[in-house]
Design goal:
Elements lengths: L15 H14 L15 H13 L2 H7 L1 H4 L1 H7 L4 H12 L2 H4 L3 H9 L1 H24 L3 H29 L3 H36 L4 H36 L8 E4 L8 H14 L3 H15 L3 H8 L1 H20 L2 H21 L4 H19 L3 H4 L5 H29 L2 H27 L29 E4 L2
């Protein structure tokens, strides 16, 4: 992965030539040759804040609609007469295209479409996928819903890459950490609003059409597509502002993306494979559980659907403010392996509480939210500590690829386990996945410890940006692909 601070920032003023051309651009653009208003000046903080607002909302629709199935789990199962295994296919189909696309999203942005056109295209995929998904529910055709989720997945992951690329182009240095933190908080806001509002939307639409059913479900999902349309508008505005800034500041974005060489995989160190195992084993116990959480809380704790959706969303609610703060803490203290170990242990404790006790689930889910946020901040930067810079793009791409592969397979397995064995066995299965992650963390700690003081890559202070989420957990620069 290319060093963010070495990339040419759109707003950079590293040398006098750039400053002069920028001043000339401002003079040319201002009325009568005078300076333009601050909100219109691409060099001014106020204008950059406006850009940041659109940048944060760029992925709002994708985050909002990703967990539509989780927010309406009981409604989807009842209205479409599905078993849980079929239901979880909606998440698997999202992940399947991203087993491959994680290697090519940055390449398409950098070398084929460009950041502006690419962002608009990926936003269109998100809108189209959600509309097809909703249409499938309207006409009660599950295969059409699966096709919609597949198309939605093509756009969703690549749109996250585009969002990160815009952030790198417009902000640099210490600002970049803050920008990624704000984007992460907006992502969590979208997920939280979805979890807590879609049930209410469904009930209102069911009242309007006269009864619950696939028509009310499809109409609810179609209404959710409005958020994707809003994000598409943000993509169009961002493209306009980016092009305008390029014209005023006389900057041109060179194709400086990092080259991915898939043959680098054979040279990955043992450290990195342990990180991959931690990544897969941890996240497959988080997001499939959230996808199935609503009915779990209704059946085990006798919650109402609204209460179940609220407690199921607490992971996202906590992650919104906690992730930037925890990222700052990890930046200052280092010791990434220790923080990962703590987060894995607390996640295991949360799943054990949910499986074997009847304690108020708000306790376990709050613990899960904190540990999930901490792991995201500590795990992903470790890749940069164990591989050379020229292999970072390949390493992050491969990490995201196997993450999506694991999510697709475990989503299907979780549905089958729940249909045949019930929630207790499913929770034991999730605990087993976390135990594998814990074993890998302990091995990583000792492998790193016995390396001695020659290099302490996993115990240093990191200054990397905080990653965003599972289907945008990768902060990926623009890249090109080489197979050999």
């Amino acid at each position: 992965m290319a060093d963010y601070e070495e990339r040419q920032s759109l707003l950079g003023d590293d040398d006098g030539g750039d400053s002069g051309s920028s001043a000339g651009g401002r003079a040319a653009a201002g009325a009568g040759g005078g300076p333009m208003p601050a909100i219109c000046d691409p060099k001014h903080l106020l204008h950059r804040v406006v850009v940041l607002v659109f940048m944060c909302f760029l992925g709002f629709g994708s985050y909002f609609c990703y967990d539509n199935p989780a927010a309406l789990q009981s409604e989807v199962l009842q209205d479409l007469n599905l078993n849980t295994s079929k239901f979880m296919q909606l998440y698997a189909w999202y992940s399947w295209p991203n087993v491959v696309l994680c290697f090519f999203g940055g390449f398409l942005l950098d070398r084929v479409f460009g950041i502006r056109l690419g962002t608009i295209i990926f936003s269109l995929f998100v809108c189209l996928g959600q509309v097809i998904f909703a249409t499938g529910a309207l006409v009660n055709r599950f295969w059409l819903m699966e096709a919609g989720r597949f198309i939605f997945g093509i756009g969703g992951e690549s749109l996250a890459v585009a969002q990160n690329t815009y952030a790198v182009n417009w902000f640099k240095g210490k600002e970049l950490n803050l920008v990624f933190g704000l984007q992460l908080s907006m992502a969590r806001l979208g997920s939280t609003v979805n979890m807590n509002i879609m049930g209410w939307v469904y009930s209102k639409i069911a009242d309007l059409v006269g009864s619950p059913g696939h028509t009310a479900l499809g109409a609810s999902l179609m209404l959710a597509a409005v958020t994707c349309l809003f994000s598409l508008v943000c993509a169009l505005v961002l493209g306009f502002l980016d092009r305008r800034a390029e014209r005023i500041l006389h900057t041109a974005k060179d194709k400086t993306g990092e080259v991915i060489k898939l043959t680098d995989v054979k040279d990955f160190p043992f450290h990195l494979w342990l990180i991959f195992i931690i990544c897969v084993c941890y996240y497959v116990a988080i997001f499939p559980f959230i996808g199935l959480g609503q009915v779990f809380f209704i059946e085990k704790f006798n919650f109402t659907p609204a209460e179940a959706r609220a407690v199921n969303s607490i992971v996202y609610i906590i992650s919104a403010p906690a992730s930037p703060l925890l990222g700052f803490m990890v930046d200052k203290t280092g010791r990434n392996v220790i923080w990962v170990m703590i987060s894995v242990i607390t996640t295991l404790a949360a799943h054990l509480m949910l499986a074997f006790t009847f304690w108020n689930p708000w306790i376990a889910m709050s613990l899960l939210g904190l540990s999930y946020s901490l792991l995201a901040c500590a795990l992903w930067p470790m890749v940069a500590f164990v591989v050379p810079e020229h292999q970072l793009g390949t390493a992050y791409g491969f990490m995201q690829s196997i993450q999506n592969l694991g999510l697709a397979l475990i989503a299907m397995a979780a549905g089958a386990i729940l249909d045949n064995k019930g929630y207790l066995v499913l929770e034991v299965f999730f605990c087993g996945c976390i135990c594998f992650a814990l074993i890998a963390v302990v091995m990583l700690y000792f492998v790193d410890y016995f390396r001695g003081e020659k290099t302490e890559p996993l115990n240093c202070v990191t200054s990397l940006p905080v990653p965003a989420r599972i289907h945008d957990m990768l902060i990926q620069p623009t890249i090109s692909i080489e197979l050999f």
